[in-house]
TrEMBL record:
It comes from the Bacteria. This is Nitrilase family protein. Transmembrane segments: none annotated. Residues 3-247 form the CN hydrolase domain. Keywords: Hydrolase. InterPro entries: Aliph_Amidase/BUP, C-N_Hydrolase, C-N_Hydrolase_sf. The keyword Hydrolase applies. Pfam families: CN_hydrolase.
């Protein structure tokens, strides 16, 4: 089964929630029009990211059955696709989480709360306490993680060991600069995670500037060999990446007749 995946790189504005929702919906619609059956949106795709503090984040937060997820369920049902996107979640426990939802056939199948919080996120969000979910969907087994999670090799490995064929990665990568000609380290880590675990990774970043913070805009779709199938995006502008994935490729963990990324491990020595 070949699956067309889409990574939607969007311009997001923390002061324009309605506009963010509209841009996300337009991107999903265009991806569907071009044949995508798996669509990934950025981290905090509707709320924005650079909050003035915990109070503003709480104002933007929604329950998992709120407007954002409800809209995405409708899009998933209308176009018959799997949709993964980040949202600012008001948990049933009253805490605010940096979360991502996976929707399939119009139904929310999993909500993942970001475990590894970056910088000022620690002042705004409660960290999640669960491993990345792996969901058997209409396009294959999809795991969900968010942004900084991808910098921890254990998170890729746990998802792969749980059977993930595709990792959906909503992200907001702040641009902290790099030497001329170098690829963003965030993209390098995604490629390394894909190759080390023989999985596909669909990373959807954002672009533009929000309250003085610029973003890498490094969205990419990466194959199990670690090489990009689409992207990374070269310019910090809105972009729709598309690539054909064969999820079954990720079930093969052998590198050659004598090497295997899982059975060659030596956990007794780690």
């Amino acid at each position: 089964m070949i699956v067309k995946a889409a990574s939607c790189q969007l311009r997001i504005d923390v002061t324009d929630v309605a506009g963010n929702r509209a841009r996300a919906a337009e991107a999903v619609t265009e991806a569907a029009r071009r044949g995508a059956r798996l669509v990934v949106l950025p981290e905090l795709a509707c709320s924005g990211y650079v909050f003035t503090g915990p109070e503003e984040a709480r104002e933007r937060a929604e329950p998992a059955d709120g407007r954002t997820v409800t809209d995405w369920c409708a899009l998933s049902a209308e176009y018959g696709l799997v949709l993964v996107g980040g949202f600012c979640e008001l948990g049933e426990d009253g805490h605010v989480y940096n979360s991502a939802v996976l929707v399939d056939a119009g139904e929310p199948r999993a909500v993942y709360r970001k475990v590894h919080l970056w910088d000022a996120e620690k002042d705004v969000f409660r960290p999640g306490v669960a491993r990345p979910p792996v969901v058997a969907t209409s396009v294959g087994r999809v795991a969900v993680m968010i942004c900084y999670d991808a910098e921890f090799p254990e998170w890729h490995r746990l998802a792969a060991q749980a059977g993930a064929q595709i990792i959906a990665l909503p992200t907001n990568w702040p641009d902290e600069g790099r030497p001329p000609g170098e690829r963003p380290l965030e993209v390098v880590r995604v490629q390394a995670g894909a190759a080390a675990n023989r999985v596909f990774v669909v990373a959807a970043d954002r672009c533009g500037t929000e309250r003085g913070v610029s973003w890498v805009g490094g969205s990419a779709i990466v194959g199990p060999d670690g090489f990009p199938l689409a992207g990374p995006v070269a310019d910090p502008c809105p972009e729709l990446l598309l690539a054909d994935l064969d999820p079954a490729r990720a079930d093969r963990k052998d590198l050659n007749p004598r090497n295997h990324v899982f059975t060659d491990r030596r956990p007794d020595l780690y």
